[in-house]
């Protein structure tokens, strides 16, 4: 269920036509005209700036416990967004949590995109036995419910920001691999790839210098949606009790810890819930915009 | 929300205003429709229990009972079913006294049931008791049960005590005797938690572990098995030929609701009539107290919340460290703020209700200055990052508990700040239950743990498994002494306590032992748990009992009073 | 075609073995175990734990345990649950109904709403409706399900008292009305994401078809727009949706883990989470194999369908 964000990206990668450098400019123009995508970019820039600079502007430490001042509602005193069950400033925690959540999302995306691309390229380029073995391996992993993989991996290693990132990345690269593999499979039959082969270029050169640059569009789209998925995933991992360890905050564990206060202190659940939704929506908007922008068919209409 | 049995204003149901209709919505309509089924009699004010079983009560639990052979390995919630489906030789009441159940009297030195050396036991059974299928219950059943527990192929839960029983002789259908290999005083308490299964059914089974009995259990208890919808609920119906009091309810439904927040919500909306294990989360206590038509009360439990030290680590071998950490703990804030004043401060490993409890132990105080002084005096000097060191050992450790216990995680974080102030650095690494309480705990692979433990064996204060030096699992021992605590004094006291039959003599022994453990502090006691329990107004008969594992232990005496 | 199917079936069987090995190894190598939950039961000791581990055969080497499990599976014996000692298949069977009920309802809502939103969005591309549809779908895909579910419960059950806060039915009431009433909240929560997915797929599939030559031809012939859209375009755009439905099959049955947990729905998803939490190895392995078979069958059906629908795709 939670992989849905990426599912619809797969709709038909083959249809996405290869970009030549000249059309990059046009794609960028199309992207800029995509209002939702620009909104997404704007929100992400804003979030990144806020989480980077914000904590220095707030007079409270995100870890300082003031037990007598617990559950202060928003706007009721010095704490703009109120305090949590231990009297910590919610705004400070929200921003610090943003650092962790966005970092986890971004890092997991980078790792899963790299793994997915390498496996996809190798499988797509060599095809036959190598391709079959690799893609069947991908199929085998996809046979496991994501939750199983996450929980099983989480049980194997000690939970920390780094391990959570690795776990999320380890369960997210298969989609990328599938997208890339099908791209490469069509690309390698094309003239420029055949030409490079004739000229005696090494396999590695063809794969990484010729094929990947030409498949970069779908990879970027997949990567964007990967971040969205990773941020959501972090929330689910926390919900299931394998998340970032206290006292560090992530949007996921803040939301998870706020569940029982939905009635008495709803702001504890509302703010992190909104932040997750905002960040994930923004990345989804960007991904959508990128796909439209890179889709040359739209030039025709 | 309107429930089924808590509303005696008939008119509002028969002639609802538009606003009420909207407010009650469809569930209200369903409740009104179900009224007669549940024995809700409009306007009738019954003073006592009904003449014949009437109505139903829904018990809500946050874990699922799944094991229905009470002798097999099981968890606490399973006992919610056992108390109602099965019977033992005797029960234990809230004061810790035994009351006869299948037995006609409690064996003692006075009535000759137990010999002076504690080795020979004679059990007399009540006459005329029948299993739910009509077969008479006899002494042969008792013999079969104790033998089954000791059957090497049978996945019995606890064997402590039972394994000492030898030469069981059936004298008559209502009398049997046996010999104990050695005197073991806690056995009476263990028997109060031992429920009996029918010999005539289980003896035919090739494999007692996977027998069909587990699917359709038959007992001698106040309720009979009706059905189980896995993952959802278990339905029991009144056993009209029950040998004890009641039952007054026609049906008892035990419902499993896997999330404490949802469990509470369902109590609030009236979907369940009694909220049992794990109760209402302390965060909801204030709100719950204000609910109309609900009786909400904190119920003491035998579990003590502790910080357990792994004494195998060099840093904790110094008693000064343990004592300083105790002084550095803001216990009051944990209890008053995080747990809303529900649990009671504790210095002992025994609950305050136990007959062996020692009320005269030194009182803890939160005194960071004193904590710092103790550490200074012991040679722990503040090093880099404000963390103390001594001989190259840093006062730095990991604390673990079950992941996902939000309230406990809050206490952990407060302790983290408390202890940093005295120069001790604690980091948190919580694990899923299946990992935390596996080898990590049993084989002392943790550094410190935050854990609620019932140290007693049944309602008996014998804590050999947790404190005796021969019980250290990590050193090949058989018990659960995971702190690796070893004390000659405690070993002697425990041995003496278990072998003595006389309760007054035992009391002195265990009180002395509590003084020793309070001084040595292998565990830092924080508080004795109180679980917030709740019933729908009008459900009479609910009696909390610290000596059992689930408070629907006496559901046979419950009834709807309005 | 037959050769292709045979090849894929053989491949799938090999894949299943692989899945079972990986699953078994990961599950058993993870720290902790099925006996951990008993550690804090009063009176439990290391001696009891060790004795029971031996009785259950958990102390034997992993390959031997795997081999025993595997050979029994080949004979049709899926083992018994550690928790309630029932056969794994009947444990799974007892949860299947609840999951099917929830998933079918949610999927029906999702297909009807999703197809409608997708088609309208594609026809009136870049209209206000299309934008709202897109934004709505994006947000729906971004909301953490458990958060949405809890907010639903809080508003509609706790504050307003309109809907039950969970469960599949009222105890003692087996009427259709009662079941339907309990279905409302969880199926809406579950359908939210599905509507988003279906509407996105449908929209893009419609756009693919609209841009194709035969639609232009149809329009050029002077056919009424309504006929072109609903007869020609939509029919063709729905074809890939059937593939999607094939791929959704396993999702349907493995259940919506989170929704089932939030709404205390006694389905497969929760069974899986519980069993994993308790390390009930036979049940977890059973569900893994069960869902792996569904994934493989779903993929195979989807591929076959593609091949039948589009002769350009060669299967071998």
Automatic annotation (TrEMBL), chain A:
PROSITE patterns (UniProt xref)? ABC_TM1
Membrane topology recorded in Swiss-Prot or TrEMBL: Multi-pass membrane protein
Q: What sequence ranges are listed for the domain ABC transmembrane type-1?
A: 98-287
Any matching Pfam family: BPD_transp_1
Tell me the Gene Ontology biological-process terms attached to this UniProt entry. peptide transport; protein transport; transmembrane transport
Sorted alphabetically, the keyword list is:
Cell membrane, Membrane, Peptide transport, Protein transport, Transmembrane, Transmembrane helix, Transport
User: Where do the TM regions start and end?
Assistant: 36-58, 100-126, 133-155, 161-180, 211-232, 265-287
Main localization of the protein described in the UniProt heading: membrane
Looking at the UniProt record for this protein, which Gene Ontology cellular component terms does it annotate, in alphabetical order? plasma membrane
Q: Which CDD domains match?
A: TM_PBP2
Query: Where is this chain's protein located in or outside the cell?
Result: Cell membrane
Spell out the family assignment given in the record's similarity comment.
Belongs to the binding-protein-dependent transport system permease family.
Q: What is this protein called?
A: Peptide ABC transporter permease
> Per the UniProt entry, what species is this protein from, by scientific name?
Skermanella aerolata
TrEMBL record, chain C:
Alphabetically sorted, this entry's keywords are:
Cell membrane, Membrane, Transmembrane, Transmembrane helix, Transport
Keyword Cytoplasm set for record: no
Q: Which SUPFAM superfamilies match?
A: MetI-like
Membrane topology term reads: Multi-pass membrane protein
What are the recorded Gene Ontology BP terms?
Answer: transmembrane transport
Q: Does the keyword Isomerase apply?
A: no
Q: Which InterPro entries does the record associate with it?
A: BPD_transp_1_N, MetI-like, MetI-like_sf
GO annotations of cellular component type = plasma membrane
Q: What are the subcellular locations of this protein? A: Cell membrane
Bilayer-crossing residues are 12-30, 98-119, 131-156, 176-197, 238-263, 283-309
Q: Where is the ABC transmembrane type-1 domain?
A: 96-302
Q: Describe the family membership recorded for this protein in Swiss-Prot or TrEMBL.
A: Belongs to the binding-protein-dependent transport system permease family.
For this entry, the protein name equals ABC transporter permease
């Amino acid at each position: 269920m939670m992989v849905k964000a990426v599912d619809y990206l797969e709709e038909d990668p083959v249809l996405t036509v290869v970009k030549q450098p000249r059309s990059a400019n046009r794609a960028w123009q199309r992207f800029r005209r995509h209002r939702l995508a620009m909104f997404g970019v704007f929100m992400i820039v804003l979030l990144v700036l806020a989480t980077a600079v914000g904590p220095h502007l707030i007079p409270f430490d995100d870890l300082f416990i003031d037990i007598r001042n617990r559950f202060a509602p928003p706007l009721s005193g010095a704490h703009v967004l109120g305090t949590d069950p231990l009297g910590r400033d919610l705004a400070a925690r929200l921003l610090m949590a943003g650092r962790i959540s966005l970092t986890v999302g971004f890092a997991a995306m980078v790792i899963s995109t790299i793994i997915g691309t390498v496996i996809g390229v190798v499988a797509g380029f060599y095809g036959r036995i190598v391709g079959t073995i690799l893609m069947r391996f991908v199929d085998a992993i996809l046979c496991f419910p994501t939750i199983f993989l996450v929980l099983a991996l989480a049980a194997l290693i000690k939970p920390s920001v780094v391990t959570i990132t690795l776990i999320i990345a380890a369960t997210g690269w298969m989609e990328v691999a599938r997208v890339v593999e099908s791209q490469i499979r069509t690309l390698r039959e094309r003239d420029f790839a055949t030409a490079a082969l004739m000229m005696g270029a090494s396999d590695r050169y063809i794969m990484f210098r010729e094929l990947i640059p030409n498949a970069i569009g779908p990879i970027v789209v997949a990567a964007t949606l990967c971040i969205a998925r990773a941020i959501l995933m972090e929330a689910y991992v926390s919900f299931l009790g394998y998340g970032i360890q206290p006292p560090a905050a992530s949007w996921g564990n803040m939301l998870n810890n706020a569940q029982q206060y939905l009635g008495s202190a709803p702001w504890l659940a509302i703010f992190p819930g909104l932040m997750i939704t905002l960040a994930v929506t923004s990345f989804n908007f960007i991904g959508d915009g990128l796909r439209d922008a890179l889709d040359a068919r739209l030039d025709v209409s | 929300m309107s429930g089924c049995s808590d509303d005696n204003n008939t008119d509002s149901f028969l002639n609802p205003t538009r606003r009420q209709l909207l407010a009650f919505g469809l569930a209200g309509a369903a409740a009104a429709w179900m009224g007669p089924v549940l024995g809700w009699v409009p306007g009738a004010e019954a003073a006592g229990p009904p003449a014949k079983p009437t109505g139903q009560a829904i018990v809500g639990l946050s874990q699922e009972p799944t094991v229905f052979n009470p002798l097999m390995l099981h968890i606490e919630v399973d006992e919610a079913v056992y108390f109602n489906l099965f019977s033992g030789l005797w029960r234990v009441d809230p004061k810790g006294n035994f009351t006869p159940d299948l037995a006609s009297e409690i064996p003692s030195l006075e009535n000759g049931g137990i010999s002076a050396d504690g080795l020979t036991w004679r059990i007399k059974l009540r006459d005329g008791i029948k299993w739910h299928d009509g077969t008479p219950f006899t002494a042969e059943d008792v013999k079969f049960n104790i033998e089954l527990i000791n059957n090497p192929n049978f996945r019995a839960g606890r064997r402590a005590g039972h394994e000492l029983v030898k030469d069981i002789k059936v004298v008559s259908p209502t009398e049997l005797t046996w010999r104990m290999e050695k005197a073991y005083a806690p056995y009476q308490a263990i028997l109060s938690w031992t429920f009996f299964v029918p010999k005539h059914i289980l003896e035919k089974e090739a494999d007692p572990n996977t027998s069909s009995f587990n699917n359709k259990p038959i007992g001698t208890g106040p309720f009979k098995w009706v059905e189980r919808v896995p993952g959802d609920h278990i339905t029991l119906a009144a056993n009209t030929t029950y040998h004890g009091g009641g039952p007054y309810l026609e049906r008892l439904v035990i419902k499993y609701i896997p999330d404490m927040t949802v469990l509470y919500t369902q109590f609030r909306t009236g979907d369940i009539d009694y909220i049992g294990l794990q109760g209402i989360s302390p965060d909801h206590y204030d709100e719950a107290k204000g609910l109309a038509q609900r009786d909400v009360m904190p119920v003491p439990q035998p579990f003590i919340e502790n910080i357990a030290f792994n004494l195998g680590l060099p840093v904790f071998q110094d008693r000064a460290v343990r004592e300083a950490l105790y002084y550095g703990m803001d216990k009051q804030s944990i209890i008053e703020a995080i747990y809303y004043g529900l649990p009671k401060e504790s210095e002992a490993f025994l609950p305050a209700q136990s007959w062996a409890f020692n009320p005269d132990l030194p009182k803890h105080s939160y005194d960071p200055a004193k904590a710092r002084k103790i550490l200074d005096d012991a040679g722990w000097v503040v090093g880099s990052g404000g963390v103390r060191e001594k001989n190259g050992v840093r006062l730095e450790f990991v604390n673990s508990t079950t992941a996902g216990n939000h309230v406990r995680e809050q206490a952990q974080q407060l302790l983290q700040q408390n202890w940093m102030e005295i120069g001790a650095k604690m980091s948190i690494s919580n694990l899923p239950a299946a990992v935390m309480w596996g080898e990590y705990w049993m084989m002392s692979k943790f550094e410190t743990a935050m854990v609620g433990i019932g140290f007693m064996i049944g309602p008996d204060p014998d804590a050999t498994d947790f404190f005796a030096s021969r019980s250290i699992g990590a050193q090949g021992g058989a018990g659960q002494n995971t702190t690796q605590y070893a004390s000659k004094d405690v070993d002697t006291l425990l041995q003496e306590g278990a072998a003595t039959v006389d309760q007054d003599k035992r009391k002195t022994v265990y009180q002395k032992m509590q003084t020793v453990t309070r001084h040595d502090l292998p565990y830092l006691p924080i508080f004795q748990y109180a679980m917030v329990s709740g019933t729908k107004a009008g459900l009479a008969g609910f009696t909390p009992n610290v000596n059992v594992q689930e408070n629907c232990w006496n559901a046979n005496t419950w009834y709807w009073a309005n | 075609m037959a050769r292709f199917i045979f090849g894929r079936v053989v491949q799938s069987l090999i894949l299943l073995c692989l899945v079972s090995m990986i699953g078994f190894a990961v599950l058993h190598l993870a720290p902790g175990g099925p006996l951990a939950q008993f550690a804090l039961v009063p009176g439990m000791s290391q001696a009891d734990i060790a004795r029971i581990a031996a009785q259950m055969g958990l102390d034997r080497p992993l390959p031997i345990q795997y081999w025993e499990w595997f050979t029994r599976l080949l004979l049709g014996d899926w083992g018994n649950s550690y928790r309630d000692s029932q056969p794994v298949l009947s444990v799974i069977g007892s949860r299947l109904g609840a999951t099917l009920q929830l998933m079918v309802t949610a999927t029906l809502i999702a297909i009807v709403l999703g197809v409608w939103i997708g088609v309208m969005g594609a026809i009136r591309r870049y209209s206000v409706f299309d934008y709202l549809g897109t934004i709505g779908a994006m947000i729906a895909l971004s909301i953490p399900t458990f958060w949405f579910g809890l907010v639903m419960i809080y508003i509609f059950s706790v504050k307003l008292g309109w809907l039950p806060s969970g469960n599949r039915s009222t105890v003692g009431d087996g009427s259709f009305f009662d079941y339907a009433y309990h279905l409302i909240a969880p199926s809406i929560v579950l359908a939210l994401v599905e509507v988003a997915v279906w509407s996105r797929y449908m929209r893009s599939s419609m756009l693919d078809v609209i841009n194709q030559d035969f639609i232009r031809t149809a329009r050029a012939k002077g056919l009424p727009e309504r006929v072109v859209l609903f007869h020609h375009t939509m029919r063709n755009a729905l074809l890939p949706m059937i593939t999607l439905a094939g791929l959704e099959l396993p999702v349907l049955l493995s259940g919506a883990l989170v929704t089932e947990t939030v709404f205390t729905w006694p389905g497969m998803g929760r069974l899986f989470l519980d069993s994993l939490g308790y390390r009930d190895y036979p049940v977890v392995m059973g569900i893994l194999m069960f869902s792996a078979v569904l994934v493989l069958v779903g993929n195979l059906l989807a591929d076959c369908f593609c091949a039948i629908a589009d002769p350009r795709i060669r299967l071998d």
